[in-house]
Amino acid sequence: MMTGFEPHPWVRGGQMQTLMAYFGASPDQVSADEYVHVPLADGDQLELVINHPAGPAKANIYLMHGLGGDSDSTYKLRLTKKLLPLGFRIIRHNHRGNGVHVKNVRGTYHSGSAPDVLSCIKAIDARWPKLPLGLIGFSLSGTILLNLLARHASEVSALGIDAHALTVCSPLDLSASADALSELRNKHYDLHFARTTIAQLLRRKFISEDFVAKHLQRPTLRKVDELITAPYGGFSGADHYYRSCSPKPILGQINIDTHILAAADDPIVPVKSILGSAMGSQVRMQIETSGGHMGFLGRKLTAHADYRWLDCFIESWINIHLVTV
Predict the structure, then answer these.
(1) What is the DSSP string of 27-88?
(2) Looking at the structure, do residues 135 and 163 belong to the same domain, yes or no?
């Protein structure tokens, strides 16, 4: 595995790491080689964007986006461009309501949407049986992934896949992250996530402009979770949703190799909220002293002529766990 993260001297601290990584140069779009639509038990479907390598695939790399993202999130595009030439098939997940061809779904996604992902993993295994699978969840999708691996451990094991999981800057205690977002120093993140989520729901006509004008003129993510995520997800309110879908207490139930990458200065996932997690022997937690939320802009240029330490870390993790020598 790669050596520890050293931040770029001009990008110090969690806030700078987060913002500079987000506003850094965006990669060009990557056209889909194929779209796969996975039916769900309730009649909805999810769209997966597939990019195939030139030759036989060494492994399937399954990338899951954070809140407000989709298959074209910049970190997914970067990794697709870097990993595809190395012989990996890239599968870019879209949660409910996202994707080019799938808009009119009745449900929405949240931290407990593990059954949706399980349906997709089963579809991938049926298409490419027994090929090694790297499951990578960014931010909120890492929370979903950990819930899947813990709450559906027997179902995942029954597939018999050589699967390994990696989560990046993922909330383990949803209430703690909601509290962190409400702090004055983090209000720009809170507003961003709330507005992005609202915009996605408006595009789908899941909620109306009138509803937003009446209830969400001053949006916060906790308010969105209270008024939309919780009731549509079957929870009595935001607190019930946070308690029910925080994976911190159940990490010991995970029975496949899982790596949790975090940063001590992440402004959205407070380090104290992930310390003391009851992890089993299959779960490892790596907390870097810096990196912010999904940042990790490093001191040195990488082999890809950029400062994206995170991308190189992921490439290294894939080569260690998913490539058979």
Answers:
(1) PPP---SEEEEEE-TTS-EEEEEEE--SSS-S-EEEEE--TT--TT-HHHHHHHHHHGGGT-
(2) yes
| 21 CA to centre of own chain | 16
Residues of the chain with pLDDT under 50: 325
Q: Which of 103, 204, 201, 222 is nearest to 212 (CA)?
A: 201
**pLDDT tens readout for residues 46-71:** 999 999 999 999 999 999 999 999 99
Helices 114-127 and 140-151 meet at what angle, rounded to 10? 80
Tokens in use for 223? 């308010």
Q: Is residue 4 part of a domain?
A: no
* 180, 169: one domain: no
Cβ count within 10 A of residue 309: 24
Distance CA 147, CA 151 (A): 6
Question: Of 245, 274, 289, which residue is a domain's last?
Answer: 245
Residues 29 and 129 in one domain: yes
Are residue 121 and residue 53 in the same domain, yes or no? yes
